[in-house]
Amino acid sequence: MRRFLFVGCGNMGGAIASAAMRAIPHARITVVDPSPERAKALLPAGMAVETHPDFAKLGEARFDLGILCVKPQQFAELSPLAISVIRSGAIASIMAGVTLDALAARLGSERIARTMPNLPALVGQAMTVGVAADGLTQADRRMVATLFEAVGQFRWLSDETLIDAATAVAGSGPGYIFAFAQYMMEAAVASGMDAALADLLVRQTFRGAAELMHADPRTAEELKKAVTSKAGTTEAGLAVFEAEGALPELCLKAVAAAAQRARELSRTAAPESPRQ
């Protein structure tokens, strides 16, 4: 039996906790969130979850894994009691910008993983990456991987420096895709199509393309070529997207900008270690 402690239970924390309850046999979930009723509303009805507004009743409790799902400023405000409970086991953080060194300094533990799930965790299709501190054991690593595989795919990174690029691609990526869908819908409406039909066409086209990429071993470039007929409509559209300074260059710039912002957040989000 695994005991999981969720510190914070918003949309992402609720999605991960819900998936853990369904996918991990005999998992016991405890949630600490200042709004317990809101947290319960995000979790499956009928499943036993222990919820608390604070750590007052958990002083002697011990957990296999604590999952930090709070904002960096809330993490900085954790009480000594909270830190004592959290570091009773391994720790996984989903906080953006808080480095392994900052986590270790604040928590006084090296059994730490820094992870970055993305929004599709809400539908069980997340792409999560993680980086482990030296003190995280192989058993701890398996436990962290099992937890995040409950909401999609999980991969360990070899170096923490890669997490900014991973954040720029997978963490921010859903936003790019939603933006592209938005502009395709707007273009369809501009061509005279009814808005509801444009919405359906774009949603299903994105869904179908994503399912095909998932099921087909060909690369994205190979699939693109497979759907492109010589002198056909797709070729005409791609000529616009792939013109000089267009989509390929824009993607490079967007990922670089997001990665740079992730690095900036890492420099500003680090909380102070607890005062002795």
Automatic annotation (TrEMBL):
Belongs to the pyrroline-5-carboxylate reductase family. Gene3D superfamilies: NAD(P)-binding Rossmann-like Domain, ProC C-terminal domain-like. The keyword NADP applies. It holds the Pfam family P5CR_dimer. This is Pyrroline-5-carboxylate reductase. One of its GO terms (molecular function) is pyrroline-5-carboxylate reductase activity. Residues 6-82 form the Pyrroline-5-carboxylate reductase catalytic N-terminal domain.
